[in-house]
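Reopening this one. Same input as before:
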Amino acid sequence: MEIPKLIIDEAERKGIDIVDLIAKALSLDPSTSKAHLELAEKFLNEDRELIDRDPVQSSEKLYKAAKEAIKR
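Same output, byte for byte:
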C-alpha cells in the first residue's frame, strides 16, 4: 500500500514525520534493533535522493538516520 503523495506533502508541510507517527501508533518496542536499523537505512536512502535538490530536507533525513542508529 502506498501513501498518496498529497498526504505525504501535507504531513511534511506540517512537520509531521509519517514513519515516526506510524511507529508510535503501532507501539513498536524501542529495543527492537532491526526496526531502528531499517528506519535508519530508509532515512539514509531518502537523504541520497534529496542531497542535490533540497539540502535542508536532506540534512533532516541524515539527522533522523543518526537518531535511529543511536536507538539501535
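So the earlier flakiness isn't reproducible anymore. For the record, The mean pLDDT is 82.
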